[in-house]
Amino acid sequence: MPRVLLGQDGESLGLLRLFHLKRLFQWPVLETPDRSFRDPNDREVHENRCLLEFTFPAHGLHFLPNMLKRLVPSLFGCLLGACGASAHSPPVSNTDSPDLGADYVLKTPTVTAVAPGTVQVGDTVTILGSNFVDPVHGTLSISFDGSYTDQTGATKRTSQEVPIIYDSPGIAHFTFGPRVIFSDSGDQIGDFTGEAQVINHLNAALAGGVNAPTTQSNKAAVAVSVTPSVMVEYLRAAGQGCQAITSATIGGQNLAVGLRAIGIPEATTDQPIAFKVRFDNPTLVSMFQGQDGVTKPTVAAAPAMGQVQIAKTITSGRTLMIDPTVSQDTYQITPPLTVGMAQYSSATLTQLQSGAVSQPVGYNIANFSVEMDAGSVTAQQIASIRVYNLGEVRPYDGNTKLIERFPPDAVTACISGGDIGRDITYSEGSADTEERSVTLNSNVTSGGSVGVDIYFQANVNWAQTFGYESQMTSSTEQTKSLNLTAHIVPFFNAVCYRQREQIERSVSLVYYDACGVSTEAGKATLTDWNWGFDIASGLNCPPPSNLPPGQKFQGQ
Questions:
Q1: Span 10-33, mean pLDDT?
Q2: The pTM is what?
Q3: Quick one: the chain helix, strand, coil %, rounded to 5?
Q4: What is the pLDDT of residue 462?
Q5: Is the peptide bond before 336 cis (omega within 30 degrees of 0)?
Q6: Quick one: which of 88, 188, 240, 267 could link to 183 by a disulfide (CB 3.0–4.6 Å)?
Q7: Contact status, residue 337 vs residue 348, Cβ threshold 8 Å
Q8: Pairwise CA distance, residues 553 & 385, whole Å
Q9: Tens of pLDDT, residues 355-411
Q10: Helices 18-25 and 64-77, axial angle in degrees (round to 10)
Q11: Rounded Cα gap, residues 260 and 370, in angstroms
Q12: What gap in Å lies between CA 510 and CA 394, rounded to an integer?
């Protein structure tokens, strides 16, 4: 006898009583749970499945479509029976976001190792394990629970959870910093001993937006030693009230960078601490004045394109603050600054700004490579800040909103079919032309909406944004290739009609402040026009158009 297999995740469509199939079809039914097979995308499916296998007479094959019509509604009405839910986390249905994967099951991760065991602030820490949730379906974090003995000998309990970045199902990483995560003050080196646990967090969209479930790994024994380091204590737009360390800013902002050596004694004349900072020009726009030591400082000049290094040695304390808006200090500069025919290896930094972002969407990454050298102890790390435009236009998603449909206009006089009939082609005496226009609806309060409007109007190519031709008009001249013909029967009359529609297309606007905080700035709306055409015929002159009547749709 032929066989049919029906397979479905335990909780996706409802659960099936086997006796219901027996009673419905009077055919033998066999449950074959946890049986693997391949789905339409050629992926092996075997977990949390319950397959129903039944046989039926060959002569009943032509009844299969009707059978399925009876079977599918029955599935929703069945009660719990032979097929049950898995002991794992239940599958999560997401009908609104099918691209995230319907019936996705959040697996339980494992952690086998956290390395390296010795780190400086700024180092990359790698986590090895399995079943790490990918970025499409969720996020990852790692928790540390144990004790930390700092450089003073004090020991305290500590419990910290930090986000980590997915690399593969068995590899993830995070940057140790910007402070010592085990230290209450954030600046004490020392030794951590305890346990680490990886946590999978399900994407909120898959969980319906509330109470997104998590799964926790085993707890792995971990020992981490934090050695002398250079910390970036400040990286922000200067004078803007931003947090000490910000992840983003906008182009053209003066920047403040603060460095601090930890885990070593304070600098002295006999044991100085040297700091070096490297960055790229023009991602970061700097200006210097050369120092002759005798004559006045030179005019301000920009360094050569490419990597620039500034260095300064301190003989007291452990910190270096770079902020030309507060203090214009002298640094050793590599390569030397060229002013006219002279070169200067020592120069005063007068400006350090985030560079312009040339692309309309996205950001630049401005990197600072910092280094500390205390003789027998060295440390280095890379600090980054994203640089956005003041405003950003989200990509146009193809939306169209009908605002008004105007009454049809007759564009020809009555055309008679005569006594034998005739064929006619749509024609119009003059073109109808309307102006396209872009209006901005800003809701920005910080920084002022007027300035944001001016930025968007001056810096955005709206033709590229919305994908229309560069001219700012829409005309029926663009429809000359229209091939609309009709046959007029004898003794009938015909008239060509044209109908205009006002439509709107919109894109979202995003505004970034100097501290890199994004705000929905509002919308840019393009007013555009469409035309419909018709050849109407009838006994009367003029015959009524077949186009719909005029109507306003705004607000609907």
A1: 35
A2: 0.69
A3: 10, 50, 40
A4: 83
A5: no
A6: 188
A7: no
A8: 46
A9: 999 887 889 999 999 999 999 999 999 999 999 998 888 888 889 999 999 999 999
A10: 140
A11: 10
A12: 7
Long-range contacts of 409-413 (CB under 8 A, 24+ apart): 409/497, 409/498, 409/499, 409/500, 410/495, 410/496, 410/497, 410/542, 410/545, 411/496, 411/497, 411/498, 412/495, 412/496, 413/495
- Whether the ω angle into residue 116 lies within 30 degrees of 0, i.e. cis, is yes
| pLDDT over 50 (residue 419) | yes
The tokens describing 291, both together, are 């120092």
The pLDDT assigned to 138 comes to: 93
Q: DSSP code of 422?
A: E
**What residue type is assigned to position 242 of the chain?**
C
Distance CA(556)–CA(543), nearest Å, equals: 31
Residue 180's CB is within 10 A of a number of other CB atoms, namely 25
**Cis before 178 (ω within 30):** yes
CB atoms within 10 A of CB 157: 9
C-alpha atoms less than 13 angstroms from C-alpha of 392 in its C-beta half-sphere: 22
Query: Residue 325: which of 249, 256, 374, 409 has the closest Cα?
Result: 256
Find out whether 277 and 286 touch, Cβ atoms under 8 Å. no
3-state secondary structure 278-344: EEEECCEEEEEEECCCCCCCCCCECCCCEEEEEEEEECCECEEEEECCCECCEEEEEEEEEECCEEE
| Closest of 284, 288, 302 to residue 355, by C-alpha | 284
Q: What's the confidence (pLDDT) of residue 535?
A: 92
DSSP states of 24-41: HH---EEEEET--EE-TT
Tokens representing 254 are 């003066």
The CA distance from 478 to 292, in Å, is 68
Residues 6+ apart with CB under 8 A from 511: 390, 391, 442, 444, 447, 452, 518, 519, 520, 521
**Cβ(197)–Cβ(142) below 8 Å:** yes
423 Cβ contact list (under 8 Å, min separation 6): 485, 486, 487, 488
What residues have CB less than 8 Å from 433, skipping those under 6 apart? 473, 474, 475, 476, 477
Interior CA angle at 257 toward 277 and 175, to 5°?
80
- Burial of 283 per CB tally in 10 Å (0-12, 13-18, 19+): middle
At 502, list the tokens. Answer: 């006002």
Cβ atoms of 304 and 281 closer than 8 Å: yes
DSSP notation for 207-240: TTTSS--EEE-PPEEEEEEEPPEEEEEEEEETTS
Residue whose C-alpha is closest to residue 93's, from 209, 212, 206: 206
Q: Could you give the CA distance from residue 276 to residue 234 in angstroms, rounded to a whole number?
A: 15
